[in-house]
Design a protein that fits this description.
This protein is an alpha/beta fold. It contains 12 helices and 14 strands. The chain starts with a strand and ends with a helix.
Length: 333
């Protein structure tokens, strides 16, 4: 067996956490030869449910699962952790403004950022899933100066998967054949799913050539991806869970595996740590197309945008600047 890893999951008794942690414990991300110490964080009222999750993990008898820690104390949950998956966050409720949501979550992610700063392994990587994930990741980063800013990510992989699925259906190919489609900006309804630079692998056709219905590409496709989360809530009465957990798995695999030469992947990163920002402010967590060598990442370079794409990217840029301004008390404590 290789050296063990400590993985922390917050909101571990929630739907996404429940769909995620069994796959981590089974070795799906880091391999079946890597022992996993699983630290699960929940709020006090959810600890009984989390204990039930713990019992189920024990009953699976995963060969890779070395230990399970359940707690409501972030200092315990983040002790020596190698990967912190910040899934839990306060949900938006009826009548709540975005400003209210950012303020509530600002307090949560300030506490978690400070706990990571005090307790995590110095090489720890942090992936924020709880929404608004871009700004929550920025708050966490700003309260955790001991860790490398390049090790903070917000998840946009779910949006990328949604985009690839829609494009594959339209082009009558499998989703695995869709390459170089990525999400720019915020994980919100302003995100820009960039099809202009996409490619169909088996034919080597650019997406705008393979799909000649450009009205669909510029309208229905973008809107469908942007509003897919809301559509799922309307259909099942709850937000995405299994697909979100799958996107977490895909994000971590993409960050820890060399990216194929004909592809890139989506994640939001700290712009000041990016070698190429594409004219985006340097103090945001912004979604880009990334390339990994299995250890470190870089933003894909040489990508051009027409005026349509530029306007879409600047719209999501403006929204993230606004969110940062709303969160200023948590970012500059």
């Amino acid at each position: 067996m290789k050296s063990p890893l400590t993985i922390t999951v917050t909101g571990a008794a929630g739907q996404i956490g429940y769909a995620l942690i069994f796959r981590i414990a089974a070795g799906e991300i880091f391999g079946t030869d890597v022992p996993i110490h699983l630290n699960l964080l929940e709020v006090e009222p959810a600890l009984p449910a989390l204990n039930g999750v713990r019992m189920e993990l024990e009953d699976c008898a995963f060969p890779t699962l070395a230990s399970i820690t359940t707690t409501a104390d972030p200092n315990i949950a983040f002790k020596d952790t190698n990967w912190a998956l910040l899934v839990g966050s306060a949900p938006r409720k009826a009548g709540m403004e975005r400003n209210d949501l950012i303020k509530i979550n600002g307090g949560i992610f300030t506490i978690q950022g400070k706990a990571l700063n005090e307790n995590a392994d110095k090489s720890c990587k942090v992936c924020v899933v709880g929404n608004p994930c871009n700004t929550n990741a920025l708050i966490t980063l700003k309260n955790c100066p001991r860790l490398d800013p390049k090790n903070f990510f917000a998840m946009t992989m779910l949006d990328q998967s949604r985009a690839r699925s829609q494009l594959a259906a339209k082009a009558n190919v499998h989703s695995r054949d869709i390459r170089k489609v990525c999400i720019w900006g915020n994980h919100s309804s302003t995100q820009f799913p960039d099809f202009f630079n996409g490619l169909i692998a088996k034919t080597q056709q650019p997406i705008p050539t393979a799909i000649t219905d450009h009205t669909w590409l510029k309208n229905d496709f973008i809107t469908t991806v942007q509003k897919r989360g809301a559509s799922i809530i309307a259909a099942r009465g709850a937000s995405s869970a299994a697909s979100a957990a799958n996107a977490v798995i895909s994000t971590l695999k993409a960050l820890t595996t060399p990216t194929p030469e004909d592809d890139w992947f989506s994640a939001a990163v700290f712009t000041a740590a990016a070698s190429e920002r594409y004219d985006i402010d340097d103090e945001l967590i912004f979604g880009y197309p990334l390339i990994s060598d299995g250890t470190s990442w870089k933003v894909a370079t040489g990508i051009s945008h027409d005026e349509f794409a530029h306007q879409k990217i600047q719209a999501t840029h403006r929204e993230l600047v606004q969110e940062r301004d709303l969160a200023k008390d948590f970012i500059n404590p």
